[in-house]
Amino acid sequence: MSFDFAVILARGPQILAGLGVTILIWIAGTLLAAALGFLVATARRFGGRFVDLALSLPVEILRGTPFLVQIFLLYFGGPYIGLRLDPIPAGLIGLSVYGAAYYAEIFRAGYQSVPTGHVEAAACAGFSRGQTIRFILLPEMALLVLPPAMNMAVILLKETALLSLITVPEMTMTVSAIGSQQYAFVESLVVLALVYWALVELANLLGRLAERRLSTFGTP
Amino acid sequence: MTDPAIRIATLSKKFGDTLVLRDISLEVPRGQVTCLIGPSGSGKSTLLRCMAFLEEPTSGSIEIEGEPLGFTGTGSARRRQSPAELRRVRGKIGMVFQQFNLWPHMTALGNVSAALRRVRGLPRAEAEARGMAQLDKVGLKERAGHYPAQLSGGQQQRVAIARALALDPTIMLFDEPTSALDPELTGEVLTVMRALADEGMTMVVVTHEIGFAASVAHTVCFLDHGRLLFHDTPEKVFAAPREPRLEQFLDTYLDRGAQMLR
Q1: Which of A62, A195, B41, B71 matches a 20 to 30 Å C-alpha distance to B228?
Q2: Phi and psi torsions of B8, nearest 5°
Q3: Average pLDDT estimate for B204-221
């Protein structure tokens, strides 16, 4: 048999539209996930024992169940409790919440990596809690948190492919639809793999640049 | 009558079930150097950390220049101060730690000027000018652009002292400031501290440097097992230690010196 990529690539504009949805959901979802994860980690760190315990449960559930099951529950199970979401919002929420559980753990490790003494020094210098987080804790943990945070972003990018199963018109759904229409399944999968890989490499490159910028202060 | 720099009244501190400070009362006069000495685990660092409210006293009270620190009221009427009130009272205190605790993502100048900019709200240029003056005072103007990881231990500790001084404290607390340094680097830190004492800064120093305590302190406090056993002028403490436990403690220092001669 022979591969015919031309039939896939001929639908360029459609593919680009799918790619656009993928990138949009990925970037928005990752930013929301990181922000939510940071809030959860901060609440767990400063909110006392009860808040810490209360937040550990959802984090464990989200990390302990497959992403596919979570989005199916959200999209198909949601209506049973009156939560009717269109595919794109459902996908974005699902991805953000799933990612937030992992980002919460990444930031928790980040908080733990900063020696208590550095926080005490900030307290003695008059920093409020908010100022300590912003000017001491966050920048100090940044270099340590960045590699796992970028790694998680890459994982989230690849997880967006599963959103095709709740009919989000992202790249996997678009390209595999073209593949079935044109009887070019394998070609469509190869194209998908290559585009995801290119995006991942691009993200890794950005991560390395950010790391280099942060690593000036000479700690490992 | 003016209040003493620090007034500690019947202070006790427990970690879990362990009583680490028992019923300590002490007044630190203004403009004087008070050294806290004693064996490891005697509670001297905990007592100093209570003076900055880095440890919460289990009972008793601490006043900084007549104002309560950390809690207001005593006994069952004891209430925790608001964070803003605590910051205001704590603002009179500069703290220097055994492990320096410089912020590794900032240069020496960044460490010294950060609180002036972020907490006091000074414009960057002014904060850095003041920070530079403090670095100059500890002899590190040329290292202003270095990060902590690029400085020796002694230099880091001098930056830490400059960082505390930049906020114009009236009281400086030192928690074993030279214990993490080798003997060669200890000297440069002690020199800075001596100069500060000569300026009349109120200082409380937890130290194992008996020589420093003997030559600089106005008062030496000896702690053992959480009790303040003895406090007096260094002449009285070191020349004629009448307390058997203190005598034993000082003997270990003499022993160490004697062993080196063997």
Answers
A1: B71
A2: -110, 125
A3: 89
